[in-house]
Amino acid sequence: MLLAAALGALHSLPFVYTHQWWLQPAAVALLAWRVSRATPLRAAAIGEVFGTAWLATGTWWLFISLHRYGELPAWLAVLAVALLSALLSLYLAAAMAAFARWRSGHAGRDALLFAAVWLLAELARGVIFTGFPWIASGYAHVDGPLGTLAPWIGAYGIGFVAAALAAWLALYKSRSWRSWAAPVIGCGALMIAAQLVGPGQFTKPTGTLSLTLLQGNVSQDEKFSLEEMPKALAWAREKLLAARGDLVVAPETVIPLLPDQLAHFEPGYWESLLQHFQSGQQAALIGLPLGDETVGYTNSAAGISAGTANAPGGFYRYDKHHLVPFGEFIPTGFRWFTQLMNIPLGDFARGPVTAPSFTVRQERVAANICYEDLFGEELAARFADPATAPTIFANISNIGWFGDTIAVDQHLQISRMRTLEFQLPMIRSTNTGATVVIDPSARVTFALAPHTQGVLEANVQGREGLTPFAWWAARFGLWPLLLVAVAIVAAFALAFRRRR
């Protein structure tokens, strides 16, 4: 159990230090070796401990939002993070039990079974109860050789391949060192080949936009403070109106009030922004809440340009589709838990999954808000019609809830994986970081230092075209991966019954 916990903690490191990508398959290889020698019940316990340590060490920053901002007692915040990690690890526990029960004893075949149950566990965590795919195993390979597979099979597919290779190394048995070297050389050759061949080029350049990206660095405990809010709003308006870029982007809830509330708090504020961007050559994408009691409230991005003057409200509107549990909606049966916290929680309505893009100088800018860029399959839904498919992703975020922690670096790696999957650039304007521009090869080309207040002047080149991942995920979502994994597991289960 101690070994499983240590391996799980080790497994969380490459999601921040991506040059250490090899730690991910190394930890999984040792996990596969250990569960291959265990009974199903003990394998489940090993998987549970590994998964709990992986998630708890990788998402410990949830403690900050619960304790510092939510004012939960420290012991209760620690317990909440631990329980969440343990509950989500039940999927991995079930996967390891299935592997221990149905494995055949043949290294190659068992590696395939291990990868299939690993994939099923990751898909379950990423989808069930709206999903929490943070630090899914594929994200560790953004800078590794398996990252070249992203435009073909996406992050979950990379996790499957990494698990198969790791298990093959771990399960191969031979008394001859020369024979044992075969899987080592084979895995190395596959990774070198992937690196040399590269991901392929499925998209081509379109136009170039100059950018102005804002990073307000507003502390979460000051965001709704009546004393501090006017300063933050004044800074945002000043920088928005003074911006020089073709597209000016401000973070999620940079304006934390509804336009009607804003009119009472800062008269003329919203109108001045509408007038400025509707009458000029620039466009702005600004995060704020929208809606009313009748239609519901949304966490939104408003796009303002000369072309939106006749749109409803005078702006393009993107409403967040994938909401954060407890932060933006309260799961059934958990209102008692949210009532323990002193956090201004939202109960937002969902926007459509296939929202149209915001057109800026013929570039189709696909907005997504914070947590949404974890769900590549949902972003892929916008590529169903190549004629209207995005040419640029724009993520606006506020993870000030989690302080100066590894959450910023982890979220950056997630965004970088999306650029590899779709071979499109991603621009990110965030409250506390990472405010960056990422090119289609996942390279950060412009960046502001996290946890500083500033403005980033940059440029981005749009791209058009469909990667294989964009094509199949737009049509079928994650079903192809699920069906492959289920078919493999079902074949092993049937073979096990026949052996009995």
Q: Mind explaining what this structure looks like?
A:
- This protein is of the alpha/beta class and 500 residues long.
- It folds into 2 domains: 2-200 and 478-499, no CATH class; 204-466, 4-Layer Sandwich (Nitrilase/N-carbamoyl-D-aminoacid amidohydrolase).
- The chain has 17 helices and 12 strands.
- The strands form 2 sheets. The protein has a 6-stranded mixed beta sheet with strand order 5-4-3-2-1-12. It has a 6-stranded mixed beta sheet with strand order 6-7-8-9-10-11, with helices on one face.
- A hairpin with a 5-residue loop joins strand 10 and strand 11 (444-447).
- Helix 6 (90-102) packs antiparallel against helix 7.
- It starts with a helix and ends with a helix.
What's this, in brief?
Helices cover 46% and strands 15% of the residues.
* Order of the strands making up the biggest sheet: 5-4-3-2-1-12
CATH architecture of the largest domain: 4-Layer Sandwich
Gyration radius from CA atoms, angstroms? 24 Å
CATH class of the largest domain: Alpha Beta
Average pLDDT metric: 92
Intertermini distance: 30 Å
Number of helices: 17
Summary tags:
500 residues, Nitrilase/N-carbamoyl-D-aminoacid amidohydrolase, 2 domains, six-stranded mixed sheet
Question: How would the blueprint of this fold be written?
Answer:
Blueprint: H1 2-11, H2 23-35, H3 40-58, H4 62-69, H5 74-88, H6 90-102, H7 107-127, H8 150-171, H9 177-197, E1 204-215, H10 229-242, E2 247-249, H11 259-265, H12 269-278, E3 283-292, E4 296-304, E5 316-319, H13 335-338, E6 358-360, E7 363-369, H14 376-380, E8 392-397, H15 407-422, E9 426-430, E10 436-438, E11 444-447, E12 454-464, H16 468-476, H17 479-499
Parallel strand pairs: 1-2, 2-3, 7-8, 8-9
Antiparallel strand pairs: 1-12, 3-4, 4-5, 6-7, 9-10, 10-11
Helix pairs in contact: 1-2, 1-3, 2-8, 3-5, 3-6, 4-5, 6-7, 7-8, 7-17, 8-15
